[in-house]
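Figure caption, in words: inputs first, then the predicted bound structure.
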Amino acid sequence: TDAGAASGYGYGVLGDYKELNTYLSNGSYFLYDVTNPMNGVIETFTAENGTYLPGYRSSDSNNAFTSGNQAAAVDAHAYADQTYDYFYNTFGRNSYDGNGSSIRSTVHYGSNYNNAFWNGQQMVYGDGDGSTFAPLSGALDIVAHELTHAVTDYSAGLVYQDQPGALNESLSDVFSVFVEREDYLLGEDAYTPRRSGDALRSLSNPPAYGQPEHMDDYVYTNADNGGVHTNSGIPNKAGYNTIESIGVAKAEKIYYRALTVYLGAYSNFSDARAALLQSAADLYGNGSEYDAVANAWSNVGVY
Ligand SMILES: CC(C)[C@H](Cc1cn(Cc2ccc(C(=O)O)cc2)nn1)C(=O)N[C@@H](CCCCN)C(=O)O
Ligand SMILES: [Ca+2]
Ligand SMILES: [Zn+2]
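Bound structure (D38 present):
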């Protein structure tokens, strides 16, 4: 029987039509994308509301992933491909490790699970409870957030604790802005499906969702690995300041160079300022970009 790469389609969580790179094998079409350059395979699974990972390969008999229970997989697959393309086209990075490792996602994890995460090996998405979250792979910025955790793990390797952890978190939020290139909000397409205009986090106004935006308001806590999802508001605001000053095209190059060349496992906020300044100098000299980065971080009380 004929086997190999195929082109399918489906509807995402928000009912939007999208093309899918699939693979025909033994009469079934799988969400298994072999089309990326340098063979970065993208493959999507379903946990069928259990917690065993990776679960079962998402498949369809006629290459049309149009049923409601396939929507989360459609988006996880399409948005992972879009995020792969971003890192490859913008920086020449082949997958999260730069070495073409397979990008694996599992949807329908758990029951009414209001979260998404990178578990060190793959991305995992809950369905949400329909009130706090819709299926979380339905938001491109969430997918980009999770895949950037993998990029960070294979580059700076920032430990998930205190300031390095908040920096880890912030880099995932900042790169989700670069990938989605739409707003400074995180999760707006999946958060509170019955309420519009809100989000999980805001890079332009972290306090809108309970995050500090200045070192004076750094939260010292043992919870959440030292408040990594709270204190990320401070580097997030610095990221917003930077993008607003020099534009997204220069900001993303400065951030990627800092992430892959200068940051390390125990880098704190001040180290991040220094790494971004050095990256700005490397790429653009000691001009307006350098000054914009300096001001962006001084504005949040980091020197
Ligand atoms: C990416 C983003 C959509 C996701 C958002 C998220 C979801 N939650 C749980 C959660 C649950 C309920 C509510 C509520 O308002 O009632 C808010 C948050 N906390 N954060 C998130 O931030 N997940 C963490 C998961 C970390 C898991 C530990 N490594 C991450 O990827 O950093
Ligand atoms: Ca967004
Ligand atoms: Zn995160």
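Helices lie at 71-91, 140-153, 162-180, 224-231, 233-246, 248-262, 269-284, 288-298.
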